[in-house]
Design a protein that fits this description.
Helix content: 25-40%
Order of helices and strands: HHEEHEEHHH
Distance between the termini: 25 Å
Number of strands: 4
Oligomer: single chain
Strand content: 25-35%
Number of domains: 2
Length: 149
Amino acid sequence: MTTYQLMFGVHPMAFFLMALLFEDHPDDLPKLNDAKLIKEDGKYIVELISRIGKKDHGQGQGEEKYMNHPLFIRFKDALHIVFKGHALTDDNYGRYYFRIPEQFYEDIRMIYEERKTTKTSSAFQKKVIDHYPRKHKELITLFTKGFMN
């Protein structure tokens, strides 16, 4: 767990988003801190937060894993946050933006807006289950019974 995750937690959609974007397990991605959905021009995209800011580019930190991704949109340097009423800027962080794979866009929207995992496509469910084999039982429950509140 990173300091960022201790301070801010992890976005509830990060688990699903990482399964759709990368073959690697999230723990194996370069300096990954979080991934969340944001809306831009009326459409959801993924904002991935990594501890690879612009000053780290070209230093062998792994940013090419993100920037060479086929769904990569753009990079934005620095993380601007408000913590306990104080505005902070940390240029050790970078924000990497990605499109959601078109075939899974509606699945992501449904989970995020309606909290409906049981209505997701079988292709989406298979992709997520295959990505997290150790969570197979829990994911089957999630996709058949939905979120447990």
